[in-house]
Amino acid sequence: MKSSQIRILIVDDEAQIRRFLRIALETQGYEVIEAASGREGLSQFAQHPPQLVLLDLGLPDLDGKQVLKDLRSRSNVPVMILSVREDEDEKVAALDAGANDYVAKPFGAAELSARIRAVLRAHNGHQASQPVLRCGDLTIDVSRREVTAAGKAVKLSKKEFEILHLLTHNAGRVLTHSYILHTLWGPEHEHDTQYLRVYVGQLRAKLNDDPAKPHYIANEPGVGYRMLDHAV
Amino acid sequence: MKSSQIRILIVDDEAQIRRFLRIALETQGYEVIEAASGREGLSQFAQHPPQLVLLDLGLPDLDGKQVLKDLRSRSNVPVMILSVREDEDEKVAALDAGANDYVAKPFGAAELSARIRAVLRAHNGHQASQPVLRCGDLTIDVSRREVTAAGKAVKLSKKEFEILHLLTHNAGRVLTHSYILHTLWGPEHEHDTQYLRVYVGQLRAKLNDDPAKPHYIANEPGVGYRMLDHAV
DNA sequence: CTTTTTTATGAGGGATTTATAAACGCGAGT
DNA sequence: ACTCGCGTTTATAAATCCCTCATAAAAAAG
Fold first, then answer.
1. How far from the centroid of its chain's Cα atoms is residue B87's Cα?
2. In this predicted model, what pLDDT tens digit does every residue of A111-154 receive, in sequence order?
3. Rounded-to-integer distance, Cα A40 and Cα A15, Å
4. Cβ-based contacts of B119 with chain A (< 8 Å)
5. What's the rounded Cα separation, in Å, for the pair A46 and A77?
6. Within chain A, which residue ranges are assigned CATH 3.40.50.2300?
7. Which nucleotide is nearest to A158 (CA to C1')?
8. Does residue A198 reach within 7 angstroms of strand C, measured from its CB?
9. For a pLDDT cut of 90, what percent of chain B falls above it?
10. Which of A111, A193, B45, B56 could be stapled to B12 by a disulfide with Cβ–Cβ 3.0 to 4.6 Å?
11. DSSP assignment letter at A188
12. Which residues of chain A carry a pLDDT beneath 70?
């Protein structure tokens, strides 16, 4: 079994920073593993090879640059340096040692995410890889276009997938009929509510969902539909 | 093959900055060409394709982001944004629009050079990184342009090879018709879906692949194609 | 309780998408 | 000039999906 979920290794000795990064990255759909020291980082890297490494330069045991060197000796995985040091020589040294980017602390979560996307995009070759959506026992791998419900793979048509994707992306919120229709069918079909009923019915059939006691898609009479997110 | 010298295009309306950059880059051995506006930048890009673009966001005619968009619609050349704006949203927007790096003015010449090296390294690295691609019982030797399926050598034409290469490089993911056409045929044939059908048919014939029960190339109706990666 | 609105679901026709063969134009090489 | 391979176009049958319609159940309103 291989999902296209992207794994990121954080190597930083400050637990607070690791926490902050983990939360920021997991909400983006990334899988996060941590290491509090250079040696642990290298060991983690060997055991669970990540697609990207976030590396702090100030580590207790090994120097961050040494860790980078070791990584580069065995892999060309993208490495982004996170550091408090604003020294230009430091940046140049790290970048020339093989780092793909150098972000000075403090940094915003949004900028870091965008830089991660940029680095991954450059490395994978142009196509930005999208994360895996999860909602209860439902997983949606957008780039693979694969859906599993309660462990079982479910084959969906294009429109079915679009509806499920839209609902899951806004899990918990009620999406009005007209909003869904406007988004997926276009403004001219905003009032063709029947379209939706048919497709939601097909979706529920494929997901083994009972409209009377919905596990996934719930109906809000007169308003629209919503994806249930019982305890994410 | 192009000349060994690496060409960099600077797009910035301030002559002073262009001068500063030109001096800094030429001492590093780069060939430098300049443009003072967005339109001139795009025209220069078309006439003398550079290996890297340094782009200022604040241009007199076109918006910098529009220039980036135009560049991205026809090339995946590395683009680094130079900007006085430190706004985080601005950075995120530029990076997500396809920029490879975002450097805030004022910056040091040494750091800029190092970042340029890092971006170029990452860009060149990913092409030379995998000399032979493997996916199931399919092997693709990129430099030799040789393909074997289930042990047997398969002779492919240029376009057939490009399609198979692109699909295999993103094995598992669904690549949309328009993405494949845009990448291999160019933006103007983005909607000529029939091209693809013919070539995918030829590929499947040469690979002995049955469209009804595909072993290699699977169709996602209404979306695109994907290479199957059963248990890598 | 009756009426009206909203929802669920099955089934089939029509339109779109796909697979495949085959013809055409073009340049490279013989 | 001829052939051959390749990329492009056209044509057509088959497969698939989207939409429509009909009907029944459920919910809301009167």
1. 27
2. 999 999 999 999 876 566 677 899 999 999 999 999 999 999 99
3. 14
4. 122
5. 12
6. 7-126
7. D17
8. yes
9. 80
10. B56
11. G
12. 1-4, 125-129, 231-232
Please report the pLDDT score of residue B60 as a whole number. 86
Amino acid present at A162:
E
Q: Is the CB of B167 under 7 A from strand C?
A: no
CATH number of B7-126: 3.40.50.2300
Q: What's the fold here for domain B132-227?
A: Arc Repressor Mutant, subunit A (1.10.10)
pTM exceeds cut of 0.70 = yes
pLDDT tens-digit readout, B119-153: 999 998 766 666 788 999 999 999 889 999 998 99
**How many CA atoms lie within 13 Å of A33's alpha carbon, on the beta-carbon side?**
19
Cis bond upstream, residue A50 (ω within 30): no
- How far off is chain A from B101, nearest CA to CA, in Å? 8
Q: Which of B88, B89, B222 sits opposite A158 (nearest CB)?
A: B222
Give residues with Cβ within 8 angstroms of B111, minimum separation 6: A88, A91, A92, A95, B103
Rounded Cα gap, residues A137 and A148, in angstroms: 8
C-alpha span between A121 and A106 (Å, rounded) = 24
Q: How many angstroms separate the CA atoms of A119 and A135, rounded?
A: 27
Listed in order, the ranges of chain A carrying CATH 1.10.10.10 are 132-227
Phi/psi of residue B147, each to 5°? -130, 135
Residue bearing tokens 């493997």: B134
R_g of chain A computed on alpha carbons: 22
Rounded distance in angstroms from the CA atom of residue B180 to the C1' atom of nucleotide D17: 23
